[in-house]
Amino acid sequence: MTEKAKIGLEVHIQIKTKSKLFCSCPSGKSENNVCPICLGMPGALPTPNKKAIEYAIRLALALNCELAEKIIFWRKCYFYPDLPKNFQITQLEPPLAKNGKLKIGKKIIYIRELHLEEDPASITYPADIHSSRYCIVDHSRSGTPLIELVTEPCFDSAKQCRLFLTKLVAILKCLKIFDESCVLRVDANVSLNGPRVEIKNIGSIKEVERAINYEIIRQKHFAKLGKLKRETRLWDSTSKTTKPMREKETEEEYGYIVEPNISVIEITKEFIEKIKKELPELPDQKAERLIKQYKIKPEFAEILSLDYDLCEIFENIATDISPNLAASFLCTEVAGALNYEELEAKAILDRTEEIKELLEMVEKNKITRKAAKKIVEKLISKKFSVKQFVSTQDMYLVSDEKKLEEICKKVVKENKKAVEDYKNGKEKVLQFFIGTVMKMTNFSADPQLVRKIILRLIENSAN
Ligand SMILES: [Zn+2]
Fold first, then answer.
1. Is it the case that residue 249 has pLDDT exceeding 70?
2. Is the pLDDT of residue 242 over 80?
3. Considering 392, 420, 438, which residue would you say is the last residue of a domain?
4. What confidence tens digit (pLDDT) does each residue in 22-79 have?
5. Cα–ligand 1 centroid distance for 76 (angstroms)
6. 19 C-alpha to center of ligand 1: Å?
7. CA of 25 to the centre of ligand 1 (A)
8. Which pTM does this prediction carry?
9. Could you tell me if 118 and 182 lie in one domain?
């Protein structure tokens, strides 16, 4: 029997406000950004950050949520070293927003609720969490505004979770409430028709996919042995496994009380209308516009709509370059090279002009697309003049048939076995020949011409 996985996500999103959620300390990574309020000292009075509330409403509207009429903050009481005041200020009833949805391809992901809360301090263990004799508590994170977003358990694969989170990040960036300096932490609830296991604290989208895939396999194995139990596990990104954690508290054990030091905040219709009016173009609308405006393929429009910065580059060059060439080059060659170097498109925003020059040369048949790919792979780590590079590296397109024929002859002569293979029906070998000539000419040979010459040489070669 193959059980279908049922997965729900809890996403903690650090949002990019200037100050923390309840005090005026600067938010984000900086030193000396603590005060009696975010340290939770007795008698310190919290004041809610209006910008953080506005940002959370922006996200709620972008995800088609129903908004609450009032914001009520609660104390979630628990005893743990990351919270010296022994409670976290969060929301319980009503959450800021509920019943949202987001489309991933044809599937609709339902969002149960989202609310605002403060981030506790971060804890570092000198060794393993269980064997460390002490831990280091860093309070610079205390009080950073978080949006907690809870989905219904409606995902059935790890890949779907990855696609959802990718789109969520794209939306957060569009809304300008999140950037690379902000952190996303995910808890995933995974069950295969059996006990539900919660995986805590997964730090990146890639890791979420890995952790869930690992957990599905682990649960299948333990279910067979009849040893599967409800528990909370921790994702260990070093060993790429989940490990058991403390037994989970139930919601009742947290002991919620309404935060007595913050009064109820009304969300007025005017405030919501103002935020609605200022909402930017969101990924789905953007994809639609790109298809209409530039007549590019829907698959490229989707990739661009989900990568804010890559799309910036596209729109900056698509007026000078054929939009189809620009879109396909950015979505395949450039995106591939960025992925390989584990970089974001933001890192190459200042190389837009160079990418445009490269594609102009491809368009005018001055260099091959393969040469452009090789150059862009270098351009990603370092900015340089591409025109100069093309000339010093002799990469201008060679369509001199005589010159190419000499090189082709050499390659055919040196690979007799491959010639035979081709004659025996292994047509893939042709690609090997063309590839070899391309490499020998530093990707400057006209590939169509090389193909023609090679075919002729093979045909004319003696059996
Ligand atoms: Zn503070």
1. no
2. yes
3. 392
4. 999 999 766 778 999 999 898 899 999 999 999 999 999 999 999 999 999 999 998 8
5. 19
6. 8
7. 4
8. 0.84
9. yes
Residue 187 lies in a domain: yes
Gap from CA of 341 to ligand 1 centroid (Å): 37
Ligand 1 centroid vs 190 CA: distance in angstroms? 36
Average the pLDDT over 338-362 and give the result: 95
Residue 270 burial by CB count (10 A; 0-12/13-18/19+): exposed, middle or buried?
A: exposed
From 360, 392, 424, give the residue that closes a domain. 392
How close is the Cα of 183 to the center of ligand 1, in Å? 19
* Ligand 1 centroid to residue 18 C-alpha, Å: 12
Residues 339 and 257 in one domain: no
